[in-house]
Amino acid sequence: MFSKIFKTLICLFIILTICLNFKVAYAQPEPPPPPTYTVQSGDTLADIAIRFNTTVVELLRANDISDPNFLYEGMILTIPNLEGVSGDINSNIVPIGSSLRHLVIDRYISLDEISRINKLTSASQVYAGASLILAQTAEDISANPVPTRLSLLELSANQQISPWVIILSIQQPDRTMLLPGDYYPGTIDQASATTNLYSSIVQTMDIYPLPLVQGQTTVVRIKTTEPVQLEGNLAGNNLFFVQQDTNEYVALQGIHAMHPVGLSEFSLSITASDGGIYSISQPILVAAGKFRSDQRLIVDPATIDRANTEPEDILVRNVISQFTTNKLWSDPFIVPIDVPPGVYADPTCVTDRFGNRRAYNDGDFDYFHTGLDLTTCGNTLNIYATAPGRVVMAEELVVRGNFTLIDHGWGVFSGYGHQLEMFVKEGDYVEAGQLIGFVGKTGRVTGPHLHWEIWVNGIQVNPTEWLDNQYP
After folding, report:
1. Which of 336, 350, 341 is nearest to 434 (CA)?
2. Residues 408, 329 contacting (CB under 8 angstroms)
3. Which among 61, 111, 191, 404 is least surrounded, fewest beta carbons within 10 Å?
């Protein structure tokens, strides 16, 4: 009898244990799927790793990839080390003039959430050109209720203060709502508030691309509500603004191929028609240009002797320092050599790329290639003007050989080096595609080719950009 009761109790205990375990297992929610990223054209694993604060090794491990070169457009990658984040994500570049608070308001995401996902420890980590991961899906937004907000109209009525004065006092442009906990002064000096940059004068301000990149051309656009005078500085270069449209101003600036990677500075000063001066200064990121090192080049020692190179560099810089407000081009630049039908000049006709680090004879790799070297791949020696402009130099130089410079306006120049013959002279106006010389091997060369370069506001930039893009 006792044995039957004992067996019955054992059975009940086993059944109860199974049921409890089942309930516990059933109550456990399934973990959310890890976040994913869809590979875009031009992406590399290194770029993606930087964008999402991880490493190439961790990306390879999370996606079971054995070959780091196995990457294609549309490929879906799992992004590791992002706890509490799911769905398809992307990174967002912080625009000029933005801040953490702007992102909180615009994206309906909490400051704690942005900081946690991006591993931020200080607001100083948010600067123009920085890459931040933000909420990307509708599920993310609906799961986090929009915080209760305070109407500026309601606040201004209670305090008997103009809503615009409140906006200026907290230095927040184009905002009609305030977040709970926002601070505003109890007493507001309207005169001092209106000296803020974000008065009714500036409508938009944009810098493209962000981040800045070594060797690339940067476009700065400012749109205002009235005529103004602008002065600015970007990455150590004074900006020259021209008026492109009614109250719309633009400046082009090259970023030096050897500019230090990291934070640089952008500053802007605006003088209004009433004499008021408004200013802004913000850190801005400079990214690496992904250049390689060339093989060591053996050249005539006279062509690397500073006694020869420095006077030549000064001569050329004096010419390209000229700034003319008349823009002479309207289309993308054209390839300055003959190219066979159906062939794209880059890479077929390119023998050496812009920005590559160079060492001459027994020296160090402390030079960089200032242009693009092009062969005679079209079976002619012809050199053509890459865009309309005026010839400002046509001289025989030690390093550049027979060298022609064309001014296209707005601080943009094209240069053509090592020519066998030059068919234009200083002062000539040329059209795009006009024959200006023959390919040769004069100056510092190891063989016949055209050295083609583009200057933008005193800085040499990658010429291929000007073939592929319409500036500004």
Report:
1. 336
2. yes
3. 191
Residues 450 and 326 in one domain: yes
Q: Which helix (H) or strand (E) holds 181?
A: none
Q: Strands 429-430 and 412-422, how do they pair?
A: unpaired
Per-residue tokens: 254: 């090259």
- The answer to whether 437 and 351 have CB atoms below 8 angstroms apart is no
Domain hosting residue 452, numbered range:
301-468
Domain match, 12 and 55 both: no
Q: For residue 293, is pLDDT > 90?
A: no
Q: At residue 204, what are phi and psi to the nearest 5 degrees? A: -140, 155
- Mean pLDDT of the region 9-30: 55
Please say whether the beta carbons of 278 and 196 come within 8 A.
yes
Q: What is the pTM of this model?
A: 0.76
What is the identity of the amino acid at 352?
Answer: D
User: Token pair of 457, please?
Assistant: 């506001």
Q: At what angle do helices 100-107 and 111-118 cross, to 10 degrees?
A: 110
Which residues make beta-bridge pairs with 453?
A: 415
* CA 361 distance to own-chain centroid: 35
Residues 438 and 312 in one domain: yes
As a whole number of angstroms, the distance between CA 268 and CA 160 comes to 33
Tell me the CB-side half-sphere exposure of residue 262, using CA atoms within 13 A. Answer: 1
Q: Answer for the pair 271, 212: CB distance below 8 angstroms, yes or no.
A: no
Q: Is residue 356 part of a domain?
A: yes
Residue indicated by tokens 């103004």: 228
Q: How many domains in the chain?
A: 5
Write the burial class of residue 247 (CB in 10 Å: 0-12 exposed, 13-18 middle, 19+ buried): middle
Across-strand partners of 238?
Answer: 233
Q: Which of 214, 211, 143, 156 is nearest to 188 (CA)?
A: 156
Contact 459, 413 (CB under 8 A): no
Question: To the nearest whole percent, how much of the chain has pLDDT over 90?
Answer: 48
CB count in 10 Å sphere of residue 403? 25
Give the β-pairing of 277-287 and 212-213: parallel
How far is residue 237's CA from residue 240's CA, in Å, rounded to a whole number? 9
Q: Which secondary structure element, helix H or strand E, spans residue 152, and what is its range?
A: helix 152-159
Q: Does 292 map to a domain? A: no
Q: 355 and 414 in contact (C-beta within 8 Å)?
A: no
257 & 397 share domain: no
CATH of the domain at 55: 3.10.350.10
Residue at 93: amino acid letter: I
